[in-house]
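[Structure tokenization] protein backbone as discrete codes
[Encoding] learned vocabulary of local backbone shapes
[Protein] chain in single-letter code, fold in tokens
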Amino acid sequence: VDADLYIAYTPEGGEAALRELFPAARALFPQRGEDLGSRMEGALDRVLALGYGACVLVGADLPLLSPGHLEAAFAALERAEVTLGPTPDGGYYLVGLRRPCPCLFAGQVYGVGTVYEQALSALRRAGASFAPSPPCADVDTPEDLAALWWALRGRDTATAHFLEKLVQGGGAPRGSDAVSEVCDQ
């Protein structure tokens, strides 16, 4: 994707390892804020303050994220102030802004199945223009990991190979319940 990469990380102290993982990153900076919303808002605001016309933020739990997801998000920001990419569990994996949008983060409750809808309601109340990004599954629970394992079985990707080793390391369990058992250990 033709975009500059910034990494907002936590906890502090892990920058050297992240630099190795993301050598193309323009900069790395620690997350600031008391909760998830304030940390997301702070990271977006910090990058937008550098003069960019748009910024897209994603989490680190997105093994199925593709360049297409990011390209679609930047395309959505060409026609709206805000974009969100929904997840199957009612949250969102991606938030993109053209300018700071405090209403999106103020008073939000995260970790519940209505996060995406809460965010849309906040945007409507504030009169902010919105264009959706395509959905993508994140990995929050053992069940999500099991679904990912089933979705990637037989594929020749680093993630598929890693999950296969994880499952086999747990005694070659069968089915999604077995993947959950491996994750619970």
Summary: Residues 171-185 have pLDDT under 50 and may be disordered. Helices lie at 15-21, 36-48, 67-76, 115-126, 142-152, 158-169, 175-184. The CA atoms of residues 155 and 161 lie 8 Å apart.
